User: Fold this.
Amino acid sequence: MIAKIGRNDPCPCGSGKKFKKCCAQSGNDTGNKSDYERMRDASASVVSALVDYADAIFPKDAMYDAAEEFGLGIITNDEVQEGIFNQLFVPWYVFLYEPEGNLNMTIAEKFLKERGSTLDELSSDYIEAARKTPLCYWQVIDVLPGRGSTVCNMVTQERTFIPDVSASNALQKWDILLGQVVSVGDLTNFMAISPYPLPPDGYRLSVDVLLESINAKARPYEELREYDYEFIDHYVMCMHDALNPTMPKLVNKDGDKFMFVKSVYSFKPADKASIASRLNGMRNIFQESDKCDSIFIWVVKDTLKAHISLKDGLMEIECNSRRRDKTIRKRIEKDVASLVLYKETEEREVRPGEAGAGMPELDEDSGRMDFDSLSPEDRQGITDMMEQQHMKWADESVPMLGNKTPRATVKTAAGKRRVAAMINDFEHRHSRDPDPQFRFDFNKLRADLGIKLE
Assistant:
């Protein structure tokens, strides 16, 4: 006979926590039925019952109208749309959405009013808690694969452990989620959860701007239910942007649109020496080598602006913008006009991601050093070098920090929070590498800067 474990007894797994705060939630005990499993089953059951109830009392296109308000139409990827529909839209629809003509009540409120007496206690309590819980952004603070995840509310900074095994196998530390985290007594679960986390290095600042725009941190948390559309619009637009990225605008150091430009002049071979002499006499134009009188460069304040070559009766001028080409041609035609004859100008735009754009894709087997092929000494040497590169960041000027160093920035409380968030972003990006050969311990950087270890 197995003795029943009391909910306030020490957990037999040895974690040091009370049983109700540990394996009673995750279902790892053999002596008791999992409370978390009961809650998970109850939440799935009530959502199904609420959807059936809404289908029975509202027009058949009510859910379609709600989906239009939710903004699902701008997500054109069917798989992504289906994931958001099932995991985020449906819970929002039954717990937080107020259908037209429903007397300012959610579906859950109306259901409780009419059929609450038929429910068991856990189902009734769950619906009551879920209808009062706002959607909010949460950040993953820790992951225990196969057991659960600790998430932090980005408004209240409250941390909560969610013993959801499937989520723990998919999430990465520092992922950002839009979700509804529902608590009933000591138990907590994800009711609604965005199926596609937002990477912090691309969207954390955007989430901060949203929270500031609705003054989220100054409001009672429950009031955020009034801003569910703002959260939804933000997440859906982030997913739309992620699925339809805007190619970056390429510019040179002058701020001009980046393109390859080549202008060609012809000349008589007998005039080559005279042309070279005149080029040497022009301001900021230099012969590239004393041993070669056929190649010249145009340099202004350490910026290389054009190459000029003389070969086989042709002068070719190559630069990376129309404006640079126009400027150097004007100077050439003024100082060397009697010796050269303009022939043509060729232009080629650079579009990132397109074949032939001057940005070749790496073969998946190349561009990565194979550590396994190195000797232990070489492997350690490269590891030490990469460690040093990461640690040097603390003393480098960072544009996002107003060109201050992280070490200077952490001297204030607000600066320390900014630097800590940036390190979290780096760690998240590092953890997403599917085949890492080098893992940096970001706690070394945190410790060096006096930031709380994670």
Notes: DSSP finds 15 helices and eleven strands in the chain. The two ends are 42 Å apart (CA to CA). Residues 86 and 195 are 9 Å apart (CA to CA).
